[in-house]
Design a protein that fits this description.
Blueprint: E1 9-11, E2 14-16, H1 21-26, E3 36-39, E4 45-48, H2 50-54, E5 59-63, H3 69-81, E6 86-90, H4 97-108, E7 113-119, E8 122-127, H5 136-160, H6 165-192, H7 194-199, H8 204-230, H9 237-263, H10 269-295, H11 299-324
Parallel strand pairs: 5-6
Antiparallel strand pairs: 1-2, 3-4, 6-8, 7-8
């Protein structure tokens, strides 16, 4: 970062400063050019040249090759996350019917991306949401709400042995992924466009923290899905009760940690530590019960229990890690049992 010092000059009734000649040259400005001035929350100001102030439409073309569909899908996701407004799939020949379905399915998993033009050898999609109207905190809360619902339902399904629970959970995990991609796109765009970052009231630290928090929520959804796969093998009544108790603590940790992060409430951290320690006590009891079951040669059930223990601990760690993002500086001791 280059710093400049300027002395205020008074001309008539106005106070003026000159702009750095290097900045003027790099942005091709001249007499009569209109720049945008924004006042930040910390009383500093930001200056934006016309092309940044008005916004730049980003386009990308992805060549179609029927032998590389995985690569095409990955490029679609990558272009979306990098903030491209138009994503075009262009083929020398016609796009195969099954490949067209694969491309459309990938695009449907990305919030705000809609197909606006299509013919035999081309598919064009456009991101139709205005980034300045989005809110990182609201998207994170939406992710959090879906994940919380997944966790509650999986614990209820554990008690009643509901069939096809894992299919319902997997479907909702896909929605978590959709919101995750949208949030990553937004914060990456804010990193590249300081005017957008100011509009969204996101500092560089906020952008980094939201990226990390979103990753923890997305991971929690994945771990809940893994836990759902183990449920059919868990039937021991004491084990079901203890896992349910652990689930209630996980729910409290999630509520407190995400709320603390969004509201930047550092006082919640100690309470989350206490809940996590209680969670660890229950997990130790479950491990002991699992060891007893293993001694009775109930191998299939033991494997399911071990998988559930692993998944539950990973879910709980996600909420601890979210809480760490708002941890006060003086709280440097590691969590008990972490």
């Amino acid at each position: 970062m280059t710093k400049y010092s300027r002395r205020l000059q008074k001309i008539g009734s106005s106070l003026l400063i000159s702009l750095p000649s290097e900045w003027i040259k790099n942005n091709n400005l001249r007499k009569g050019s209109i720049i945008t001035i924004e006042i930040n929350n910390d009383s500093s100001i930001s200056l934006f040249p016309p092309e940044i102030a008005s916004g730049e439409v980003k386009e990308v073309t992805i060549p179609y090759h029927s032998t590389s569909m995985d690569s095409i899908v990955n490029q679609i996701y990558g272009a979306y996350l990098l903030g491209y407004d138009y994503i075009r799939i262009r083929g020398i020949s016609s796009i195969k019917f099954e490949d067209r379905d694969t491309i459309k399915y990938a695009m449907r998993k990305l919030v705000g991306l809609e197909i606006v033009d299509e013919d035999g050898s081309n598919i064009t999609s456009q991101f139709l949401l205005d980034a300045t109207t989005l809110d990182a905190a609201k998207i994170l809360r939406r992710m959090n709400s879906i994940v919380a619902g997944m966790c509650r339902d999986i614990m209820a399904g554990l008690r009643v042995k509901e069939n096809n629970m894992e299919k319902l959970i997997i479907h909702r995990d896909d929605e978590v992924d959709r919101q995750y991609f949208l949030l990553v796109r937004l914060i990456r765009s804010a990193m590249l466009n300081q005017r957008l970052a100011h509009k969204l009231n996101l500092s560089n630290i906020d952008i980094l923290d939201y990226r990390i928090a979103a990753n923890h929520l997305e991971s929690a959804g994945d771990y809940i899905t893994d836990f759902a796969l183990a449920i059919p093998q868990i039937s021991h009544i004491r084990l079901v009760n203890e896992i349910t108790d652990a689930g209630l603590l996980i729910e409290k940790m999630q509520e407190k940690s995400v709320s603390a992060f969004v509201n930047k409430n550092r006082t919640e951290y100690i309470e989350i530590v206490k809940i996590y320690n209680k969670f660890n006590e229950i997990m130790n009891s479950i491990k002991e019960l699992s060891a007893n079951m293993e001694s009775r040669n109930n191998t299939q059930s033991t494997i399911a229990i071990l998988n559930s223990i692993y998944s539950l601990d990973k879910i709980a760690r996600c909420w601890v890690d979210v809480a760490d993002l708002v941890k006060p500086v003086h709280l440097t001791a590691p969590l008990t049992g972490a």
